[in-house]
Amino acid sequence: MARASVYHRLVVWLLLLVLVLPLAATLLYSLATQWSASLLPAGLTFDWYLRLWSEPRFLAAFGRSLLVCVGALAFACLLVLPAMFVIAYHFPRLDAVMNVLILLPFAVPPVVSSVGLLQLFAGGPLALVGTPWILIGCYFTIALPFLYRALTNNLQAIELRDLMDAAHLLGASTFRAALSVVLPNLRKGLVVAVLLSFSFLIGEFVFANLLVGTRYETLQVYLNNMRNGSGHFTSALVISYFMVVLLVTWAASRLNRDPSSS
């Protein structure tokens, strides 16, 4: 039993080492003044990070990524929340159909979707290619499965019908009961789903590169365009991006943790 435990711990530590080692090397390279023909860097500096966070083009790309992600998630919440409530309360049998429909965005590869969207929205009355609106639409479809699954689990956990019946007995209308009773109970699952979706969306590259490219340069497109520049600078960019995603994921994990387990 003890030997098995040691073996399992060894496997876990090896896996952790494989995952952390590339990030640690990137972090060290982003802090190096020079690192070419020696085993260790010549010196350490934060100069690459100072250059990065004072670069107007990077800040603009970061702001655009935030704007597109927040816009897509806000749009998804406004549409998904009422639809989820109606399905769960009035048409629970549609849940099986919805479980299939929400997986469709993952059934089509992003490159194939992008080619179709380019043909549809490159010209004509809805010339959206090159604008943030087409990215918001694409990101909405990507975020939809995350939001739907999280909210479905939340709705099943709160006994929706019993809550609504109790609110109706106390004189509340269906709209008021949904807004004042059901929505606060969904807050935790909604926030976690939004944060996890944000962590995924801010790293999206295929749609951003093919549909808008440099016309609306987002963070991942900026990173791709800077690949021929200084390796220290791009390493600082990768670590900064990773820290943002790590911070958001940590916040989602903290919110999703059961208080009784701490």
UniProtKB/TrEMBL annotation:
Residues 62-252 form the ABC transmembrane type-1 domain. It is found in: Cell inner membrane; Cell membrane. GO terms for cellular component: plasma membrane. One of its GO terms (biological process) is transmembrane transport. It comes from the Bacteria. Its main location: membrane. It is a multi-pass membrane protein. Keywords: Cell inner membrane, Cell membrane, Membrane, Transmembrane, Transmembrane helix, Transport. The chain crosses the membrane at residues 65-88, 100-121, 133-151, 189-212, 233-252. Belongs to the binding-protein-dependent transport system permease family. This is ABC transporter permease. It comes from Halotalea alkalilenta.
